[in-house]
Amino acid sequence: MTLDELIAQMTNPQEFTRLCNSVFTDIYGEAFQVIDGTRGDNGNDGYVANERRVLAMYCPSKPEQKTDAGYLEKIRSDLAKAATLKRGNKYDVDAWTFITPRKLSDDVIAAMRARGGEVGIRVSHQ
After folding, report:
1. Is the pLDDT of residue 78 over 90?
2. How is residue 48 annotated by DSSP?
């Protein structure tokens, strides 16, 4: 089984977050800020300072039951929180990345990009 397939099968949000934190710490080093989500993270699951990028990590426990509408609601909610962080000057936010263990449909990505344009934040998915 490939690494992509193993990640796509993840259903434990804590394990997925640990994996993401390890990968992003390795990639970005000190520029990556791990956020403790157990005490309220305001939708900020990680922050890449040199890119002014908020990360939103999302691992549904039952991904096979997630619909495009379910992903879009999570995107809308977390992106709104990132916009609030930006407006409140809590973080410099130019970009926002939605990170999931599974790929998203083109329709979801297009809607996500449109919403990012509305709040003035570049968005992407990994």
Report:
1. yes
2. E
Count CA atoms within 13 Å of residue 121 on its CB side: 31
**Using only C-alpha atoms, what is the Rg of the chain?**
14
Burial 80-94 (b: 16+ CB within 10 A, else e): ebbbebbeeeebebe
pTM (2 decimals)? 0.90
Contact 76, 69 (CB under 8 A): no
Q: Which residue has the tokens 């989500």?
A: 37
- Sorted by sequence, the CB contacts under 8 Å of residue 62 that are 6+ apart come out as 11
> pLDDT tens, 28-47?
999 999 886 665 556 678 99
Give the Cα-Cα-Cα angle 57, 100, 66 (nearest 5 degrees): 110
